[in-house]
Amino acid sequence: MKKSLVALSILTGLSAHVHGAVYQVEELSTLDIAKHHYVTDANNNGEVIGQARGVYNLPIDVSYIDFSDSQITNAYDDWERSQFEAIDKEITFTLDDIEAGNLNADAHRFMLSFLSTSSVNSDANWQKIADSVAVNFTPSPATEQVLLDEQSDHYDGLTRSVANLYNAISEDGVRAGWSSAPYEQIEFTPSGDDEAQTYFVRDFRSRGVVVGVDGTVVTLPVISDLYGGQGTANDIVMRPDGGYYVVGDSSTGVPEDRQDNYDDRCDGEDEPVAVCVWEIENRSASNTRNGLYDRRATLWTLDADLNVVDTKNLGLGLSIEEDENSAFVSTALAVNAQGIAVGYSHIRDNNNDNRINTLPALFKDGEVLEIIDQEDDWYSGKATAITDNGIVTGYATKNIEGRRTTKFFYHNIETGTTVFPTDYFTSSSSVGRDINEQGVIVGEGEVDVVNSGSRRREGFIYTLGDEKIANINDLLPCYDVDGESNYPYTFAEATAIDDDNIIYGVATKTEPKLNSFGEVEVDSDGETLYESVAKPVKLTPIAGGEVEECPPEAAETYERQSGSLGWLALLALPLLGWRRKHG
Questions:
Q1: Which of 439, 47, 385 is nearest to 235 (CA)?
Q2: Cα–chain-centroid distance for residue 330?
Q3: Cα separation of 366 and 316, whole Å?
Q4: How does pLDDT run across 229-283, given as a tens digit for each residue?
Q5: CA 486 to chain centre
Q6: Model confidence pLDDT, tens digit, residues 462-506
Q7: What one-character DSSP code corresponds to residue 151?
Q8: Whole-number Å distance between alpha carbons of 517 and 54
Q9: Coil, helix or strand at residue 339
Q10: Contact, 470 vs 462, CB < 8 A?
């Protein structure tokens, strides 16, 4: 083990054109029902969990839709112009076809696009669809893990209306995550109207869950379920004396001005009360201080049978003044076997009491402690992982070379020191995702120096004490197994590392392009189209593996392949901020 760490340390100085067989890549089993797959955690027993996005055959309920409504007729006209007439093609479906339930692939894609537009998605009169599912990647074949979704009353199968985040797995295979409540279709007649309208409502915004080895789902209680409430579960570990620690966050109540807002609006006259609450909740998507709920980092203590025996509020990184009515938030993203948690919290700016920052936080002995020195101009960030011996990793944000930039760090709880190692280049944004007990950190950073806008990211590995990081792609083979074809994977995101230095994460791979039904797409000449797909992978160190320099043509092809990764925007999901490893 020590020898492999030394070898990895030596590799940190290699250039971007050096590739070799230091790691063997194994593509994990994936679901047939979805396109992109992401690893979120793995344990030392090789058990791996994650998330899939781009679910095929998402159900479209047409039974409630008035197809003369201007919202959908205007959308159809715009779609015909932009997707068909612009390339001299005739549209392949009509709204009458959709109303009759005859949806071809083009019609299905149109409806998914229509339902996902901001104006429709924020309107409670339209069906809600979510394209993410929880996945057990092992044992093979991969299986979907249903969290809180239910069978639909209006079409076959699950509602497919819930967000699913499958975040962590303990050493004995108990898993933690969170899910929103499924939407239910109801009829409601607004005051003064003669006809009922269709609304889509849910019981609560989210709940943390624990999933037993046998698949049993246990819902974690929130501290306050006023107006439904909100909760997440981001990490789980086994307690030394038996049972488990689970951390996340939980709603603790509603600020005074939000209560006034509820009292003024949510009278059940013009819309269902649940819709009114949902609309207020949705304002928190971009600014947590405008949210409906106060939320606090929470530690749940469970016994060996997954019964919750204690729910503890871990606190907030500031004292709330009497005239402050915003919703304040803290969240725990990781916990160790001693019950010490890390994450982030609202913290008051050192130079301006009226400015509130969201900064990495340590939750220990009843206190909420800052990890990052604000005097160094850090104004945001999150702590994402912690070892049993008290080493923390994560990232913090400051402006570098005129752009908002994140930098990964590690923090020693015992000494109180925080180090920001050298990453790919000065203005490269980097994020620490996980750290093992040997002090090896994995994550990813921006590698595109020229493009200051949307830069491609590639996974890195770093050993505490090293001068700088190593790009994991530099440690992979130059060629595929035939010795001639270019290596098919570009490693984009390192999510987890176990104590044997086995790395788990996401790689891109070019495959035939599939439509929303999961069917292969072809161009006008009948030729198969291709696209980059997110694949879950396991990287195992090769005993005696050596790094060798790829021939220039292989290096050039590698750069060209890895440069077209627009799909990586999928990694920045609306749910991303609540994923354990993604802060």
A1: 385
A2: 18
A3: 10
A4: 999 999 999 999 899 999 999 999 999 989 999 999 999 999 999 999 999 998 7
A5: 30
A6: 999 999 999 999 999 888 888 888 899 999 999 999 999 999 999
A7: B
A8: 10
A9: coil
A10: yes
